[in-house]
Amino acid sequence: MKTSRTAIFASGAGSNAENIIRYCAAHPDCGLTVPVVVCNRPDAGVIERARTLGVPVRVMTRAEINDPAAMLAILEEYSVDSIALAGFLLMIPDFLLERYAGRIINIHPSLLPKFGGKGMYGRHIHEAVVAAGETTTGITIHHVSSECDGGRIIFQASIPLPPGTTPADVETAIHALERTHYPRVLATTLSTQV
Known about the structure:
- The chain contains 7 helices and 8 strands, in the order βαββαβααβαβαββα.
- By secondary structure, it is an alpha/beta fold.
- α2 links the parallel β3 and β4 (57-59).
- The longest helix is centred in the last third of the chain and has 24 residues, at 167-190.
């Protein structure tokens, strides 16, 4: 099995990024390694999490991420084969979609196409799911396209939502699904793309 050198792009606390990095360390033959984390927020929790685990972090502005010369220089410096989004809140620029066609993957905390699109992230999704009276929700792991939360679905996992479920309950259950499935699906999918 070939190993995909997968950059993680993250904007927030970094629980998914940490989970992926720890999974790779615990499963050195999984077909995935994380050479760098790219973050667009200098105050994001993911920075400390990644550094604590020995993974370099490059903090870049939106303008730098959207600049082919700046962004590709970083990815080439770390010999990046693919990209995993882990709570990354910016749209991926077209030049990256072209350069890494079929090798950029995102996880979304709902069963797409439900509760996707602009403004739908994190707690906003869980609140919307509960407000809509949904009886199930889950996660979607998908290829990234130029459409927000578009792209071909790779994997979905669902959970039931009994009456009285709160947004906090949903968030806890979704985090458990993410921990269980995202690193494995990334490794399985991206190691075949190298």
